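Section: Multi-chain targets

For targets with more than one molecule, the full set of components is provided together so that the structure can be written out for the assembly as a whole rather than chain by chain. Components appear in the order listed by the source. The example entry contains two components.
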Amino acid sequence: MKTKNRLFENTVHGVFLILGLITVGCVLLITIYLIVSGIPAICKIGFFEFLFGTEWASTAAEPSYGILPFILTSVYGTAGAVLIGVPIGILTAVYLAKIAPPKIKSVVTGAVGLLAGIPSVVYGLVGMLVLVPGIRTLFNVPDGASLLAAIIVLAVMILPSVINVSVTALEAVPKEYEYASLALGATPSETYFKVSVPAAKSGIVAAIVLGVGRAIGESMAVMMVSGNAVNMPSLFESVRFLTTAVASEMSYSSGLQQQALFSVALVLFLFIMLINATLNFFLKRNRGE
Amino acid sequence: MRKRVLTFALAAVLAVTTFAGCSQKTSDTVSADGSTSMEEVIGILGEAFMRDNSDITFTYNPTGSGSGISAVKEGRCDIGLSSRSLKEEEKADGLTETVLAYDGIAIIVNPDNSVSDLSVEQIASIFTGKIKNWKDVGGKDAQIVTIGREAGSGTRDGFETVTKTEDKCEYRQELTSTGDVITTVSGNSAAIGYASLAAVKDSVKLLSVGGVIPSEKTIKDGTYTVQRPFVLVTKTDEKLSDSAQKFFDFATSDDAVKLISDAGVVAAN
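Its structure, encoded as tokens over all components, is:
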């Protein structure tokens, strides 16, 4: 009876181990594949020419593969989205966690959840049909598909992650801190911004980093609103992100062009790894406190 | 250790399936090699052909017109596919061309645009950035917004070849599908773009080029100039295998006309 039980336990254990290893295997497979297929093109093109070249003409008779415009666009686009999205997100989070009456809170939380569930292609579609023509008329530029359109779409897309994680962090702040502040004569607003927010600092930073990750990895929605021409980033110019560079050319690519696209994906992957490491750092610090 | 074993196992499975794809060439295989622009039309024809002849396998290798032509010359495939006419020296080298279809590329603008006709030279100047304003070609005072396709697209390749603007076009937007181009042009009064004629809808205005309105008729008789032929390349003095001949006859038959126009191009016969 006992051995039978143990056999059963071991089998279950083994099954779960294999299931767990599937994830690990996928990650490893993707990482190895990206590195193996991304390195050759970088070697062929030259490390500096690839990363700091400003011209991308992958199908020209004399092709050039410089991805600096993509890198800068991704960085600027993400920074812009964070600049717009994070203040809105954090202030919403403060409102939801501390000020909002329960009824309003449940409505807003529901809306935030819905926003998180909207597929990115829908964001792109609305952006393409509403935002792009809107920017064109509002700013009187020849074409609205631009970095600005992408920034606005990304800012909205990162809101749910920023809000949800910040709310959790703010709600975890011990009530005693706030009571102490209030007892010392601080107004509620002073308490929220000078006590609660600083106390939830690392959680909020984690929320921002999560938003950065979401923004830098987004491809479908930005592809639909950013115009996809290779330009150095400028607010009203059509631009191409790291993600859209891969997505827009992969289907017909061949030879060195295809390898170079894998290299672009590798660069993007490194960016995401960096962001993940930062996120882990802040989450750990958060838990340590 | 275990992770590594799993990874290698997965990699091995992938490798095996990849090689399994390159099966041995048998007499019952028709292989076509060449132009990536012809992918859609040849895909549709190949599918229909295999449906009717289940014992014959049709393969298509999208490599580009140049390599398709050399592949048929070197006997590496049965039928070469080229999206340009053969040069005289290629014909002298023992190759024959049979025009399968014509790919007519429509130049489209927003319905609000007052311009209705452009010459090929004007189109080339617009897309290379030499003409930047609609008033220079008889329209209203507005900056021209050029909408194109992504690098590697067959339509882009065709457009740039015909207008002789290869690698010189300055696009404001590079979109990944014909539908996107049409939607964008229909939404911006200063936009100009190009698309396969068959895909053009009423939401955009079709321009005539040099006074010729694009239609099946003007494309076939060659008066509409923004077009290129889709050519089947074969050896002049060597007979095709029976199955390849069967495919060739099918592709040039009347039955194929509907399939060819489904692919957005104008059948040659």
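The interface with chain B takes residues 21, 24-25, 28-29, 32, 57-61, 128-129, 132-133, 136, 142-145, 223-224, 227-230, 238, 240, 247-249, 251-254, 257 of chain A (CB under 8 Å).
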